[in-house]
What does this fold into?
Amino acid sequence: AQSVTQLDSQVPVFEEAPVELRCNYSSSVSVYLFWYVQYPNQGLQLLLKYLSGSTLVKGINGFEAEFNKSQTSFHLRKPSVHISDTAEYFCAVTLGGDSGGYQKVTFGIGTKLQVIP
Amino acid sequence: GAVVSQHPSRVICKSGTSVKIECRSLDFQATTMFWYRQFPKQSLMLMATSNEGSKATYEQGVEKDKFLINHASLTLSTLTVTSAHPEDSSFYICSARGQSEQYFGPGTRLTVT
It folds into this structure.
C-alpha cells in the first residue's frame, strides 16, 4: 500500500518570500501524485498533479512541484507567496496506470501554510 | 474541470436523528464516488467507495449500518448518518472518479448536538 509523509505540520513564511512544502511518498508500484489546497471550511482544490512525463509540474496560483523518483519526493514550491496563500495543503498519492482515478487516494496529514504580512 | 456539489453545506442535528448528505456530479457521469471524513486539524480519511447500482465498499473500521451509502444514479450518491451522535460531528467530503484524478465536492459540516 502507498503512503504519504508531509514533514512539516506548519510553515510560517513572510509575504513575498519563497516557500517549499515537503512531501515524501512510499510505494512499490507507480503512482500518481497530487497537491491540494483547502481553505477554512471548504473542500479541496487541486493545485497540480503528476501523472507521467516531465518531472517539473506547474499548477495554479504560481505553484509548482518536482517529482523525484530516487528520493521519492514531490515537494511543492512557490517563489513568492501572498497573504491569500494562507491555507492547508495536502499531498496525496494514488496508484498510477490507466486506472489512477479509480483508486483510493491516500492523503498526507497536511501542512498549514501561514503567510505573515 | 469537472464540478461536484454537496448538499447541504452545513447541518446541525440532534443526537439520535439521521442526516442525509447528497453528492452530485454536475457535468459528468460518475460510476464511482468516494466518501471521506475529516476531523478538525486532521487529514481526510476514506470511509467508503460508492459504486452506481451496487453496494458500497467500506473501509476497515467504518460501520456500514451507521453510514448508509446509496449510489442510485450516475450523478448522485448519498450518505446517511443514522442515529447520529456528537462523535459523528465532522467534515464530510465526497469525490467523483475521473480518468486520472478524483474531483472533490466542497464538503458538508455536520454538527450533532
About this structure: The mean pLDDT of chain A is 90.
